[in-house]
């Protein structure tokens, strides 16, 4: 999830473990503990972009890293606050909760996490939450804000940290339920394609859990479209994107391409734009693709001029969004005609 969500959850976790006798310092420890797995961003300063993509949410989001980090940070915290009456086992429980919750919820985004690094490079991606979903984050954020501004002994602090921790997991369960609805709607669609080797990828479109982005992957390319959980008919309107592996011969740096292919987990296409070969990672969707299905993909990488690739996964993510687009977006989300409500 996004950094603000981790910060909010961390504040609630800190309050949950140390609400009595530790004051507001508990929240700051919670924020720090929830942020530990994201220290991998430091490595990006010394890596090329494809390598940095693989490093992010890699080893520092693994089970092995968590097992190693938890006792180290627990001992540091225990020594830092001496003299105190907090047992080491409580510090271990606290850091275990904070770190494992972080790597757990990150696995529900499309980016994926390397739970089994360095023994396996397989990325775990349940593709059930958009990376920045306000419906997931709003109550933890409100709860954390209350915990920060209220008196350390306010009688409602216990209620707020419970809301901040329980609500996002209820929403996560609801999103899992919605994903199954979408999968059921698409099962009949897969039978209409001639090729036998078909994989279906589903993940929420931006900022919610009712409109889902769908990839139906075949050997030669992929069909891409959007479908709402509120849609009554099982019709899936899609557009075809060929794989275009024949463009590989126009690429000089094949090492970068191999890293990008591994990162994309096979969900990619190549395209040629003005003699430049572009690598598209399909998993992150398109710029306003729910309305204009031929718009560029959010993740696109210039394989010929690799120094031009900045803000790689968020290119144009917010481009074109205005009041009218937001209104149209939620009409699509709830399967309403775009002409209605105007």
Describe the structure.
There is one protein chain. The radius of gyration is 22 Å and the shape is globular. The model has no long low-confidence stretch (mean pLDDT 87). It has 2 domains: 3-175, no CATH class; 191-314, no CATH class. α1 (3-18) packs across α7 (157-190) and α6 (134-149) runs antiparallel to α7 (157-190). The protein is of the alpha+beta class and 342 residues long. The protein has helices at 3-18, 25-35, 49-55, 63-80, 88-106, 134-149, 157-190, 254-263, 323-333; strands at 199-204, 211-217, 221-228, 238-242, 268-273, 276-281, 300-302. The strands form 2 sheets. It has a 4-stranded antiparallel beta sheet, with helices on one face. Strands 5-6-7 form a 3-stranded antiparallel beta sheet, covered by helices on one side.
Q: TL;DR of this structure?
A:
This protein is 42% helix and 12% strand.
Global structural class: alpha+beta
User: How is the largest sheet built, in terms of strand order?
Assistant: 1-2-3-4
Cα radius of gyration in angstroms: 22 Å
Distance between the termini: 34 Å
Fraction of residues in helix = 40-55%
**How many distinct folded domains?**
2
Q: In what range is the share of β-strand residues?
A: 5-15%
The average pLDDT score comes to 87
One letter per element, helices H and strands E, the order comes to: HHHHHHHEEEEHEEEH
Q: Report the total helices.
A: 9
Unreliable stretches (pLDDT < 50, length at least 5) are none
Give the tally of β-strands: 7
The major pleated sheet works out as: 4 strands, antiparallel
Shape: globular
Looking at how many chains there are and whether they match, the oligomeric state comes to single chain
């Amino acid at each position: 999830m996004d950094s603000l969500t981790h910060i909010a959850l961390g504040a609630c976790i800190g309050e949950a473990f140390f609400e009595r006798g530790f004051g507001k310092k508990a929240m700051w420890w919670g924020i720090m503990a929830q942020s530990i797995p994201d220290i991998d961003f430091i490595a990006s300063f010394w890596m090329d972009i494809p390598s940095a993509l693989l490093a992010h949410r890699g080893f520092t989001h693994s089970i092995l890293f968590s097992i190693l980090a938890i006792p180290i940070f627990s001992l540091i915290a225990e020594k830092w606050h001496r003299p105190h009456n907090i047992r080491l086992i409580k510090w271990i429980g606290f850091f275990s909760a904070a770190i494992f919750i972080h790597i757990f919820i990150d696995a529900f985004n499309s980016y994926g996490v390397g739970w089994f690094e360095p023994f396996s490079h397989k990325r775990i991606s349940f593709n059930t939450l958009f990376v920045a979903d306000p419906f997931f984050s709003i109550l933890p954020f409100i709860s954390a804000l209350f915990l920060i501004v209220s008196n350390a002994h306010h009688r409602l602090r216990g209620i707020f940290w419970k809301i901040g921790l329980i609500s996002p997991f209820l929403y996560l369960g609801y999103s899992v339920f919605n994903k199954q609805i979408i999968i059921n709607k698409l099962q009949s669609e897969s039978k209409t394609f001639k090729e036998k080797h078909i994989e279906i990828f589903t993940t929420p479109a931006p900022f919610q859990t009712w409109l889902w982005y769908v990839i139906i992957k075949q050997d030669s390319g992929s069909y891409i479209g959007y479908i709402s959980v509120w849609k009554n008919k099982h019709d899936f309107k899609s557009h075809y994107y060929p794989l275009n592996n024949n463009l590989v011969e126009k690429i000089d740096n094949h090492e970068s391409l191999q890293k990008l292919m591994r990162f994309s987990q096979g969900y990619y296409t190549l395209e040629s734009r003005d003699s430049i070969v572009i690598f598209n990672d399909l998993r992150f969707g398109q710029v306003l693709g729910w309305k204009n299905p031929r718009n560029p993909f959010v993740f696109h990488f210039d394989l010929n001029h690799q120094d031009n690739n900045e803000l790689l996964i968020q290119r144009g993510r917010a481009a074109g969004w205005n009041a009218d687009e937001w209104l149209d977006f939620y009409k699509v989300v709830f399967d309403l005609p775009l002409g209605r409500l105007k």
